[in-house]
């Protein structure tokens, strides 16, 4: 046993300084995020992106131009980017897509970036330093769990941010839900939420929890948390990477500002 | 369907004889599934493996009066497939020893896949739990929401003190109807879905699916794509097996050992993202090859060398830690016979002495040119399962060393367009074991039926056999030593 301790010490600190320290590595180098919308004009009657999208995240206008992109439905599969002949849709590396209002995930041609509103604080400042999470897998592919488990590895070391997973819903501040909410998981999910003391928050983690994802229309599947639980933060991604999950948790705790407004990056 | 799979029509009355013959000749059943060749005709397909390097056989058997004889007493591993077909297709299997619902739960609407008859049976019959009584017997029901960040499933234990009398997992809370989700899609676009059946098996699922579509289309995948596919598949094995050791060290309360294992897994995931844009190596494999070429950086093999050194040092340290060994040796013994009969697969079966690996026995992608070393162990305990995985990690590094210098230049994608009405079978040896996809294309050229046989579906059936008559303290360690996933099993 002491050998392990020595071994651990000899390997030094593996934990990133991100997001607190300057120049810290978020660990997501090279990873694709949600597609970016460039300035290039769509070709008339093209429709290629909407036809390629497996989750129907893209709506076209009457000319067949990109009219709306719902990042809440996006699984970052890059199929629309590959299909787009005009370069309107481009590969992006933006993954910090946690938002408070579902509508903020919808990019639309007609609306410009809405002004960032000064949000009324929803969390008492004394609660911001620490958070206990009860996770419920409501029917995921295990990709989200794999990334949630990664939060505990020495690189991200979630505990340093005062955030912990807890076994008991009674001790939890946040219900973090992954998966599309299958028919069989709906009741256990509801029971877990009801067992939590107030104030209780809900984070929809991953595109399945936001909208149902790739298999939203089968006999056994649900359409995510909309209409099931009151959601405080929506985080699409397939799966959202560990840094994106941290970002969303800090957004919930009001320790980080929201980056996405009206489907557009609005860097503070 | 090309020459690698033999299709044989079988009458219901001849099924039992065929199974007997197959087993006598050293073969093994692989899976069974139902589909509708015509709207009013249900057929059951049995996949049989006569042996290594021999073509798979698909036995096609039409149900008579929605009934077939059960084969579960001869080949017990078929019982879960038969129960699933009962739940989803409303067929009946005569003589099935435990005909209780397996997959069913909470569905509210009928559908063609779940016909009305099957639905009724499911909703009226709750999951079977044996009646175990005694003044000291306690029932512990844990889940489906369990401690930690884990997938949803329920464990039922009947126990006295520390001793477990009976254990039974209740799965399929996560049943999403994934097989159904494929239906109606263009076969060329299904890989995106396959990658999301089991996230930590994204490459294996995409690969098995695409190979099934390529089999249906008679498509020849360019060599470079075949080689890169195998590179991706081995990278997937690396991060899965490294995570496995972190998890196993955690179960045996080695905190530093846990941290080091999961950190190594994280390093591979970050490498995956740099190589392919995805930590899960998604969005690359597609019917016909790859969606885009990937350039391996010049220092790739050096990176692999450093990672291999770290991994070796880590594994050696684990193997020198007596507290870790104490918890694993003799824990959760799976005998060779039970492993064979109940359908164990992957590292789990190889740790019980069954020498099988699809990469070597039914080669695909670049494994046709570089067969892997297939490590074995005989003891069947948790330590054997860990030993096999450790040796597989080393074998994966060797494979990458062999693949990368021999990468050829050239195209990475061929045209792959299956004709209406064709079918295909694809497989891959995922980090957890054998994975099969059977794909049927309808008259409209869209997917009409996709069957997924995931390795965890097989291993979850086997797992309880190693729990009965053990004790509660060993349970978590034994479970970790199996390395099970639930999403792929539940689908």
Which class best fits the helix and strand makeup of chain B?
alpha+beta
Question: What is the name of the CATH superfamily of the largest domain in chain B?
Answer: Cytochrome-c3 Hydrogenase, chain B
* Count of domain modules of chain B: 3
Distance between the termini of chain A: 47 Å
Shape of chain A: globular
In total, the number of strands of chain A is 12
What kind of oligomer do you see?
A: heterodimer
CATH topology term of the largest domain in chain A = Rossmann fold
CATH class of the largest domain in chain B: Mainly Alpha
Query: Which ranges of chain B are low-confidence, i.e. pLDDT below 50, for 5 or more consecutive residues?
Result: 108-126
Structure description:
The complex is a heterodimer of chains A (268) and B (491). Chain A is built from 7 helices and 12 strands. With 268 residues, chain A is of the alpha/beta class. Chain B folds into 3 domains: 5-124, NADH:ubiquinone oxidoreductase Nqo5 subunit (Beta Polymerase, domain 2, 2-Layer Sandwich), CATH 3.30.460; 138-170, no CATH class; 178-490, Cytochrome-c3 Hydrogenase, chain B. Chain B contains 17 helices and 14 strands. Mean pLDDT of chain B is 90; it is low at 108-126. Classes of the chains: A alpha/beta (268), B alpha+beta (491). Chains A and B meet through α1, β6, α4 and α5 of A and α4 and α8 of B.
């Amino acid at each position: 046993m002491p050998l392990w301790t020595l071994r651990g010490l000899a390997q030094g600190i593996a934990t990133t300084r991100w997001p607190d320290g300057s120049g810290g590595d978020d660990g997501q180098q090279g990873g694709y995020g949600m597609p970016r919308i460039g300035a290039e004009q769509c070709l008339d009657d093209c429709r290629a992106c909407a036809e390629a999208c497996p989750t129907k995240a893209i709506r076209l206008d009457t000319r067949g131009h990109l009219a709306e992109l719902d990042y809440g439905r996006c699984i970052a599969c890059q199929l629309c980017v590959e299909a787009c002949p005009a370069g309107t849709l481009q590969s992006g590396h933006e993954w910090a897509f946690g938002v408070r209002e579902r509508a903020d995930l919808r990019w639309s041609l007609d609306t410009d970036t809405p002004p960032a509103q000064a949000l009324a604080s929803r969390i008492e400042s004394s609660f911001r330093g620490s958070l206990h999470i009860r996770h419920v897998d409501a029917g995921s592919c295990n990709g989200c769990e794999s990334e949630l488990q990664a939060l505990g590895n020495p690189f991200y070391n979630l505990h340093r941010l005062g955030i912990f997973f807890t076994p008991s819903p009674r001790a939890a501040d946040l219900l973090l839900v992954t998966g599309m909410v299958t028919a069989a998981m709906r009741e256990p999910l509801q029971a877990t939420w009801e067992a939590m003391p107030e104030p209780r928050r809900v984070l929809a983690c991953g595109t399945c929890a936001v909208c149902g994802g790739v298999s939203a229309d089968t006999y056994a599947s649900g359409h995510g948390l909309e209409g099931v639980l009151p959601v405080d933060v929506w985080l699409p991604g397939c799966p959202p990477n560990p840094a994106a999950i941290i970002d969303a948790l800090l957004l919930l705790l009001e320790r980080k500002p929201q980056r996405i407004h009206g489907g557009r990056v609005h860097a503070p | 369907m090309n020459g690698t799979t033999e299709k044989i029509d079988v009458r219901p009355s001849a099924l039992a004889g065929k199974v007997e013959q197959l087993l006598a000749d050293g073969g093994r059943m692989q899976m069974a599934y139902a589909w509708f060749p015509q709207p009013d005709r249900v057929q059951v397909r049995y996949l049989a493996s006569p042996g290594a390097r021999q073509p798979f056989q698909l036995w096609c058997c039409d149900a008579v009066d929605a009934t077939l004889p059960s084969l579960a007493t001869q080949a017990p591993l078929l019982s879960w497939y038969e129960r699933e077909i009962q739940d989803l297709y409303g067929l009946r299997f005569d003589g099935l020893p435990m005909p209780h619902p397996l997959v069913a739960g909470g569905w509210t609407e009928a559908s063609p896949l779940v016909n009305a008859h099957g639905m009724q049976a499911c909703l009226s019959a709750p999951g079977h739990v044996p009646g175990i009584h005694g003044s000291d017997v306690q029932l512990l029901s844990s889940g489906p929401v369990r401690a930690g960040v884990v997938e949803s499933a329920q464990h039922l234990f009947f126990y006295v003190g520390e001793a477990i009398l009976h254990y039974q997992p209740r799965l399929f809370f996560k049943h999403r109807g994934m097989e159904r989700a494929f239906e109606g899609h263009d076969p060329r676009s299904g890989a995106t879905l396959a990658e999301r059946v089991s996230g930590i098996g994204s490459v294996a699922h995409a690969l098995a699916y695409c190979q099934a579509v390529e089999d249906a289309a008679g498509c020849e995948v360019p060599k470079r794509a075949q080689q890169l596919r195998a590179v991706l598949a081995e990278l997937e094995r690396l991060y899965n097996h490294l995570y496995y050791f972190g998890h196993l060290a955690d179960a045996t309360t080695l905190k530093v050992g846990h941290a080091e294992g999961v950190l190594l897994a994280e390093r591979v995931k970050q490498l995956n993202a740099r190589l392919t844009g995805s930590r899960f190596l998604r969005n690359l494999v597609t019917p016909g090859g790859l969606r885009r070429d990937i350039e391996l950086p010049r220092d790739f093999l050096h990176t692999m060398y450093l990672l291999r050194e770290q991994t070796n040092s880590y594994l050696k340290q684990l193997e020198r830690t007596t507290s870790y060994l104490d918890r694993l040796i003799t824990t959760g013994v799976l005998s060779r016979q039970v492993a064979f009969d109940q359908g164990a697969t992957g590292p789990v079966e190889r740790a019980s002495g069954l020498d099988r690996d699809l990469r070597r026995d039914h080669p695909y992608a670049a494994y046709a040119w570089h067969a892997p070393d297939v490590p074995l162990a005989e003891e069947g305990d948790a330590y054997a399962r860990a030993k096999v995985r450790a040796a597989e990690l080393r074998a994966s590094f060797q494979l990458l060393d062999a693949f990368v210098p021999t990468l050829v230049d050239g195209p990475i994608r061929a045209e792959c367009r299956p004709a209406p009405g064709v079918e295909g079978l694809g497989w891959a040896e995922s980090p957890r074991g054998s994975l099969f996809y059977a794909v049927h294309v309808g008259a409209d050229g869209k997917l009409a039926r996709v069957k997924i046989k995931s390795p965890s579906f097989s291993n979850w059936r086997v797992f309880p056999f190693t729990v009965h008559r053990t004790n509660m303290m060993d349970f978590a360690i034994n479970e970790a030593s199996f390395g099970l996933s639930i999403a792929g099993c539940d689908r």
